[in-house]
Structure formats: C-alpha cells, structure tokens
C-alpha cells in the first residue's frame, strides 16, 4: 500500500500529467495537419486524374500498410542522412502526420464514395463546376458520414503517440518510464495511472463520437 | 542496398519469421478470446454483458505499448520469467482480442434477429442457436474486417522491438546501428512488412467489393 502512496506523490502525478499534455499536443497538431493533407490526397485519389490518382493511391496504400514505428524510426534516424535532422517532438509530429494523412485520405475517399452519385450529377446539371459541386454539395455530406471513422482514427492516433517514446519524446509513456525507473515497486501503480489517463481521454472521445452520431442520425 | 540485404540475410529472415509467428499466434488466440467476449456482449444475461463491455472498452482505449510493457515488466517480477517474445505476443493478443470482439459483435448484430428467434422457436438453446445458426452467418460478414485486423496486427507486432522480441523491427534496428546505413535498412524492413500486409489488404478490398 505504501508503494502506491509513494508512487502517487504529487510530483510524480504532475510529471505524468505533463507527459499527457505533450501527448495531447502532438496528437492534436498531427490530426489537424493530417486532416488537411488527407483531404487533399483523398480527393485526388477519388477524382481519378490520369496517372496522378494512381500514383497517390499507390503511395497511400504503401504507407498505410507499414508500421508507424518504422516511419518514426525512418524520420528520426533516416532523414539525417539527407541532411535534415528534426528534433524529437517535430520528428514525432512529422511521422504521425505522414502516417495519419494516408489513413485519413482513405476515410475521406470512402466517405465521398458513400455519398449518392446523384448528388454530384444533379449539381453538375444545375451548372456547378466539379470543384463547386465537391465543395458545396458532396463534401459536407461526406464529412457528416465519416465523423465516427475520423474520431476512431483520432483515438488510435492518441494511443500511437506512445510509440514515440522510443525516440525519447517527453510524452506520457516516456514520463511513466522515468517514474517507475526510480523504484521497481512503482511499476504497477504507474501503469495503472498511465492506463487510466489514456483511457479517460480515449473513452471520452469515443462517447463524444457516439453522441454526435446519434444527434446527426 | 542489395549488399546490405545479402550480408544480413539471416537476420532479416529470422526477424521476418518471428514477426509472422507472433502475428499468427496472436491472431489465433485473439480470435478465440475476441469471439467469446463478442458473444458475452450479446447474451441475455445483463451481468455477463457488462463484463464483456468492460473488457472491450478498457483494452480498446489503452495503447498497445502500455499493455505490452506491463506484461513484459510485471509478469517476470511477480509470477514467472518470460521472454520478450512471449510478453509481446500476450500483449498483442489481448489488445487485438478487444478489436476482434467489436468486429464479431457487429457481425452478430448484422444477422437478422429472426434467425435467432426461429432457432429458439425450434427448441434450440441460446448457445446452440449461437453456435449452429448465428455465428456461421456472422463470420461471413466479418471476414473482410478480420483481414484488416490481421494487417493491423502485423503492423502492431513491431512493438516487439520494445521488449527485445527479435522481430523484424528489432533486427532492423540492430542492423541499422551496426551498419549506420539507416535509410536502406529501414527501406528493406518496410518491404518485408509490405510483403505480408499489401496482398492481404488488397485481397480484403476485393472481397469487400464482392460482398457489398
């Protein structure tokens, strides 16, 4: 019991919460960037532009099927060979963004495909350009349909930031390792605390997604 | 790159083998555990349903790395000595089983409830109806999502590198730090992963189109 009280001293808890803050910061920045890049790539793949869509589609498929950990290693240890040496947090954000953009591109593309093609045809027949119809008619409907998929992708992004501990990004998992490194008796209490912190954030998001989904339906 | 591949061939292949073995073992056990929890989530008994729900929600919302590191550090400390490969595979199994439970539950729910009612009406018990009528129909719906889970599982098995699981990622890191040729090593490691994941994910896309 004393182990638990010692492990949960305010200094340790505050240190873990600081880690959680970095985790959330990295996740939010990466998800915003990947949402923008993913939307562009998803629309390019959907639009069937000769050659370009094929190439983009292939890149999306390749990166989606690689482990995120490999991409983190590549960014942090591989890119310096090309003369670009990012710091740990930017490296984590870059790796997450590259990976998540491809995941989100696929979600966007299938969201657009799920919109009745009649919507596009009708807007074109009303005299709208392809880009206008996409922006004003198809995309708003598509985004509504993909909210659950986007939120669950965001949840896995938050969980995946824990992998960045391998390049010593000061996020929750890394801070946890620092705390239980002091004393092996802290291992279980610290894992429980980390699990609770991740769980609260991720579960709250999944409840939010269910709530939005019910309101929209 | 060719030279790097040939001079470290045995390390790459053994890493590839351990990655594949860990993924297949984790898939096998998480299919069993996941299906059990999926059934728990749809049984009439409320208490069992809550247990099923808690299991799924907890392990879906905690990072795989936290689960894996927990098993790697805690089991040897208090119970038995296990190696990184075993700890990693246990972590993978538990994490994946929560996702498979969700997938299978969605499959069970997509089977017309009339099937269960009719089977019960014929005098079958709940478990008989589940086993002979509902599950066989549910598995048809869940094959594409299960294939995607397997792709995720292979990608996730890279966490074995954290616990010295001798998988592809671990061997790749060892080779990269020996040869200092990080770029080519990681490209080769990536190609090895794609050999497993790309064909499965293309096949699943094809199946999804066919079933839809």
UniProtKB/TrEMBL annotation, chain A:
Domain of life: Bacteria
Keywords: Cell membrane, Membrane, Transmembrane, Transmembrane helix, Transport
Signal peptide annotation: none
Membrane topology: Multi-pass membrane protein
Localization, UniProt: Cell membrane
Chain ranges of the ABC transmembrane type-1 domain: 20-209
Membrane-spanning ranges: 20-43, 55-77, 186-208
Chief place where the protein resides: membrane
A Pfam family of this chain: BPD_transp_1
Homology family: Belongs to the binding-protein-dependent transport system permease family.
Protein name: Amino acid ABC transporter permease
From TrEMBL, chain B:
Location of this chain's protein in the cell: Cell membrane
Domain of life: Bacteria
ABC transmembrane type-1 domain residues: 16-204
Tagged with keyword NADP: no
Major place of residence: membrane
Membrane topology summary: Multi-pass membrane protein
Name by which UniProt lists this protein: Amino acid ABC transporter permease
């Amino acid at each position: 019991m004393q182990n638990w009280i010692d492990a949960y001293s305010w200094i340790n808890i505050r240190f873990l919460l600081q880690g959680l803050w970095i985790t959330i910061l990295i996740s939010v920045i990466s998800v915003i960037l990947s949402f923008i890049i993913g939307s562009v790539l998803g629309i390019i793949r959907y639009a069937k532009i000769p050659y370009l869509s094929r190439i983009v589609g292939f890149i999306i498929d390749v990166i989606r099927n690689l482990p995120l950990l490999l991409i983190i290693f590549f960014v942090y240890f591989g890119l310096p060979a090309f003369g670009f040496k990012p710091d740990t947090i930017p490296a984590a954000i870059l790796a997450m963004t590259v990976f998540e953009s491809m995941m989100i591109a696929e979600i966007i593309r299938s969201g657009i495909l799920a919109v009745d093609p009649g919507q596009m045809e009708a807007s074109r027949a009303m005299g709208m350009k392809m880009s206008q119809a996409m922006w004003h008619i198809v995309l708003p409907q598509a985004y509504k349909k993909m909210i659950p998929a986007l939120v669950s992708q965001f949840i896995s992004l938050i969980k995946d930031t824990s992998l960045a501990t391998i390049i010593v990004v000061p996020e929750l998992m890394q801070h946890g390792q620092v705390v239980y490194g002091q004393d092996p008796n802290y291992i279980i209490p610290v894992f429980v605390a980390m699990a609770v912190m991740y769980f609260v954030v991720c579960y709250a998001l999944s409840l939010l997604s269910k709530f939005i989904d019910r309101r929209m339906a | 790159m060719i030279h790097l591949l040939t001079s470290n061939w045995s390390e790459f292949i053994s890493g590839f083998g351990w990655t594949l073995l860990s993924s297949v073992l984790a898939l096998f056990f998480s299919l069993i555990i996941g299906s059990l929890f999926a059934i728990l989530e749809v049984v009439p008994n409320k208490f069992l349903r809550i247990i099923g729900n808690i299991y799924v929600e907890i392990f879906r919302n905690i990072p795989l790395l936290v689960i894996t590191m927990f098993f790697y550090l805690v089991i040897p400390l208090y119970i038995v000595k296990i190696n990184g490969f075993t700890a990693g595979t246990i972590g993978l199994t538990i994490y994946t089983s929560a996702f498979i439970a969700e997938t299978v539950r969605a499959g069970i729910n997509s089977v017309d409830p009339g099937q269960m009612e009719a089977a019960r009406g014929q005098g079958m018990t709940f478990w008989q109806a589940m086993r002979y009528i509902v599950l066989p129909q549910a598995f048809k719906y869940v094959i594409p999502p299960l294939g995607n889970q397997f792709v995720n599982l292979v990608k996730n098995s890279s966490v074995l590198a954290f616990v010295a699981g001798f998988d592809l990622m671990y061997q790749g890191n060892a080779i990269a730090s020996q040869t200092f040729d990080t770029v080519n090593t990681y490209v080769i490691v990536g190609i090895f992963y794609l050999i497993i994941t790309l064909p499965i994910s293309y096949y699943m896309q094809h199946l999804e189109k066919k079933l839809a």
